[in-house]
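Ticket 4471: requesting a sanity check on a complex prediction with magnesium ion. Repro inputs:
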Amino acid sequence: MSQWPRVIILIDADAFFAAVETRDNPEYRGKPLIIGAKPGTRGVVSTCSYEARKYGVRSAMPISQAYRLCPHGIYLSPNMRKYVEASNAMFEICERYTPLVERVSVDEGYLDVTPEDGALIAGRIREEIKAEVGITVTAGVSYCKYLAKIAAEEAKPDGLGVVGPDEALEFLKDLPVGKIPGVGPKTAKLLEAQGIRTAGDLRSVPPGYLEAAFGKHGARLVELANGIDDTPVVSSHEAKSVSEETTLEKDESDKEILHAILAGLSQDVGYRLRNHGLKARTIGIKVRYSDFSTLTRAKTLPYHVNSDAEIYGCAKELFDNLALARPVRLLGVAASNLSTRDIAQPKLFEQDEKSWDHVSKAADSLRKKYGKRIVNLGATLKK
Ligand SMILES: [Mg+2]
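Returned C-alpha cells:
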C-alpha cells in the first residue's frame, strides 16, 4: 500500500436534527419525522428522517410539498439550542483525537489525524458519539478532504467509507461529474453535453482542454478527477490554539520561580503540539495578577516551532518585557497559528531547530515512559 500523504476524516451526522429528536422521543423511532417550518406556512424542511425520505421528502423542500407527500408524518419545529448542544458534544469527541477539527456545519466536520490510522480513529469516534451523544454519524476516510467527503456520502447512513491513495482512481472512475465538489448543475450539463459524464471521463479529456474551456475552474477539475486536493483542514475556534495555564499555589513575585513555571507550561504545550504533529508560529503568554487583572502578550515568528526550548524562549522574552505590576496569581502559555507543515525556514535556524527537535523527542519518550513531570528544562529545576 502506498503511503498516505495525509489522513483526513469527514464526520457527518445522519439526519442530524431528526436523530436528536428521536433520541429524546423514542416514540418517533421508525416514523417519518420532518423538522422545519409548520405545515401551512411558506417555510421549508430543515431535516427529515430516513423514513420520511422514503416518501420523497428532502431538505430545503417547501413544507407544503412535504406535507402533500407525507401527510401522516410527524412535523416538528427545530430546537436549535438542543442541536447545538449535541453538535458541540460531537465535535468535542472529535477533538479528543486531534486539535485539527474544522467544523463546516452544525453536523459536519473534517479532521486531520495524520499520521494515525484513519479508519481506526473514525471507528472509535463513531462508537463514542453513538454512546455519548446518542446519534449515529457516518465517516469518510481518505488522504484529502474531497475524497473523504465523497467516501462518506457513499457510506451513508451509519457507515464508514475508506478510500486510500491506491483506490482513488478506481473509486472516482464512475463518479458522476455532478458529484464533484464545485460542479454545479450548469457545469455538469455543459460537461455532459460533451460526453463527459464521470470523473473517469474527465481524466481522458486531452490536456489543456478543460483549462481552455473553464479557466482556473477547469484546471481544478482536472486535479479533482485525478484525486488531487491539497485543501488543508483548518481548525475551528477552540482548536485554533494549544494552551496550558496554572494558578499558582500562592501569589508570586520571584522572577526565577515564575520563569520555572513558564518553562514547565512551555514543555506541556510543546508536548501536546508534538503529539499532534503540529507546529506553531505564534506563542503567547497570559499573566493574571493578584488583583485578578489579566494581560496577554503574543509574538509571531517567521517560522514554525514546537520544541520546548523555542516555545520557552518566546514565552520568557514576552514575560521579561512586562513590568510586573503586582504579584502573579496565574500564568499561561499558548501556541497558535498552527500547522502540520513547515513554512520555509531561514537557513540560519536550521541547525538549532534540528538539535532542539532532537532534545524534545528524547524528552517526549521519557515522558511517555515515566509521566510528564519527569523531564525538566534547566529552568524548571530551580523550582
Ligand atoms: Mg449530516
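Notes from triage: The chain has a mean pLDDT of 87. Leaving this open until the requester confirms.
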